[in-house]
Amino acid sequence: MKFFVDTAEIKEIKELNDLGLLDGVTTNPSLILKSGRNIAEVTKEICDIVEGPVSAEVAATEYSEMMKEAAVLARIAPNICIKLPLTFDGLKACKALTSDGHKTNVTLCFSATQALLAAKAGATFISPFIGRLDDTGIDGLELIRDIRHIYDNYGYETEILAASIRTVNHVKDAALIGADVCTVPPATLKALVKHPLTDKGLEQFIADWAKTGQKIA
Ligand code: G3P
Predict the structure, then answer these.
(1) Looking at the 3D structure of the chain, how many domains does it have?
(2) Options 14, 68, 83, 172, the catalytic residue
(3) What is the pLDDT of residues 119-166, one digit of tens each?
(4) pLDDT one-digit tens code per residue, 77-90
(5) Residue 83 among the catalytic residues
(6) What is the domain range of residue 138?
(7) Predicted TM-score of the model (pTM)
(8) Is residue 185 within 8 Å of 192, Cβ to Cβ?
(9) By the number of CB atoms within 10 A of the CB, which of 39, 140, 147, 181 ranks highest?
(10) Hey, whose CA ends up nearest to atom 10 of ligand 1?
């Protein structure tokens, strides 16, 4: 499973990228707002840090405006992935951009039929939002399961990018179901390594090692 980080915070991206565990980055207008940065500047900085795809989202809602914005975003760096909303205009732009050789990420997916449309439009990634569905009382992971099933039925190559991840268990369950990618907020990504028995065990090993008086040299 690939790990993307869902943020536009440069410090967090650098830190996670240095671990060697980062396969890409996703941003959206809310994350750009939170960063307080200019979209072109911050996106360029992210693309310089991370080798993998960096999703940058169009703000327009009408096809020709989306295409103009996509052209601007695509010029930022070769690893830009154009993020488009799951509307007919977004799907039309997805089809055109994919045909032109761009990577695309169709976002705000809340149903399996929406995901089917994105695959038909040639999306590189489909972003189903798990947490936001959970918030409404609908099981977000069930959507990932349905999309996996449908894509496998027809051999669609669109990658399932599980988004709106809120917990470590979301990541575990998305991996069990077979999502191709999880985009995870920095804090949740860091929490994946945590286990109290790891901490306790390490403490014990450190103490016992000190008692041996040895050095590995
Ligand atoms: O990238 C979009 C998605 O991950 C948003 O997550 O927590 O705002 O629902 P959230």
Answers:
(1) 1
(2) 83
(3) 999 999 999 999 999 999 999 999 999 999 999 999 999 999 999 999
(4) 999 999 999 999 99
(5) yes
(6) 2-212
(7) 0.96
(8) no
(9) 147
(10) 164
